[in-house]
């Protein structure tokens, strides 16, 4: 019995020791866990403080750099403005000096010229009014000389059936279009001057009497315009076959046709003839008769004035008489449009 009790007591004591040891182990583990938790918290606080310090330091450095750059920029800007102001002032002073010198030089030159003219007048013993009168007389002499020259040339080159006034107008038109350098008559300008003045009769007389010089000038001008139109019609990425399809794809044929059309337009719709022949005034007057032969009537119709309009789709010719219709049939260029009794017709 005593042994059993001893055994039980020993077992109870062992259990008590085990529980005590376990309690100590649990307490030690809790203390270590708490200690690690505190250490982790300290480290987090220390890291946070370090981060805050670094951020404040970087912000301070950035602000200092920004302020320093701003101060440097302000200083550079002010320095540049002062230098620019110095240069502007220097340039202005130089310009003012130059202008003053120029004005002074011009004034001196003007005074010298005026003094020279005064000396000339005093030397010649004439006044300014007398000088003007003398210049006017000299100008009048020159005009009389020109008129006498024109009359002399008119008498030397009289077309027979022109009145003296018409002959003078024709010769004055020639004289006013003489090139001062080459001393040659600009026949095209002379022809257009007479046409612009409404003297188509004198323009045709000029064509008939100058041996083809007027016709050649008109044709050269027309060919230049036709060549320019051909250049404008030609495309960068197309061929002549498409650009000039209305003329069989032939560029030269287009230029030839267009030249002929422009000549006809310049000369009032058909005075151009194959081989350069021109109807004489006597033939033109004879063709006005209803009893004239057909060839003469054709020449008369070609000398007739074109009807009102330009012959385009936007501004077609407008027929107001049978003569306008006959002119359109014989002299209008290909593709021209005319309105007859309110209806359009294309040649």
Which features characterize this protein?
73% helix, 3 strands, 347 residues, three-stranded mixed β-sheet, 3% strand, mainly alpha, 11 helices
Could you explain the architecture of this structure?
The chain is mainly α and 347 residues long. Among the domains are: 216-267; 317-346, no CATH class. The chain contains eleven helices and three strands, in the order ααααααααααβαββ. The chain has helices at 2-124, 128-156, 164-175, 187-196, 200-209, 213-233, 240-243, 251-266, 281-287, 294-303, 322-331, and strands spanning 317-318, 337-340, 343-346. It has a three-stranded mixed beta sheet with strand order 1-2-3, covered by helices on one side. Helix 4 runs antiparallel to helix 5 (200-209). The protein starts with a helix and ends with a strand.
Low-confidence stretches: 150-158, 270-302
Number of strands: 3
Widest β-sheet, arrangement of strands: 1-2-3
Tell me the distance between the termini.
Answer: 156 Å
Per DSSP, the total helix count is 11
**Broad structural category:** mainly alpha
Helix content: over 70%
Can you tell me the overall shape? elongated
**Measured on Cα atoms, how large is the radius of gyration?**
55 Å
The main β sheet shows up as: 3 strands, mixed
Overall pLDDT, averaged? Answer: 76
Query: Approximately what portion of the residues adopt beta-strand conformation?
Result: under 5%
**In sequence order, what are the helices and strands, one letter per element?**
HHHHHHHHHHEHEE
Biased composition (Low complexity): 281-302
Biased composition (Polar residues): 95-108
Biased composition (Basic and acidic residues): 66-84, 109-124
Region (Disordered): 61-140, 226-321
